[in-house]
Specification:
mitochondrion; 124 residues; membrane; Mitochondrial pyruvate carrier; transmembrane; 2 domains; mitochondrion inner membrane
Length: 124
Amino acid sequence: MSQPAQRAATQSFIRNYINKETLKYVFTTHFWGPVSNFGIPLAAVYDLKKDPELISGPMTGALILYSAVFMRYAMAVTPKNYLLFGCHIVNETAQLGQAVRFLNYHYLGKEEAVNDEKKPERAQ
């Protein structure tokens, strides 16, 4: 890309995306609330790989309800907060995955299969 074309592209990007309205949005709780809240779904996605014995059923249920409520809230406020909505979509999906793992392990008989795999065989 030639120097004048690169300069024009840079100026166009700055004019379109780094403007007064964007900076005003970035310095509000409408932006930083969801950004800081993304720790919950990131932890939930990371926890999908951990042992299902460690999953708390009541906490998973509470987080499913929490995310459902805030997904609704994100669409009810003006202006709609799509960043908050996206955060809670990710969390809802991860928590539902955790709930399925919890139910499989504790109530659908997978606990015995997992425990049998962990027991070492005794030599006779």
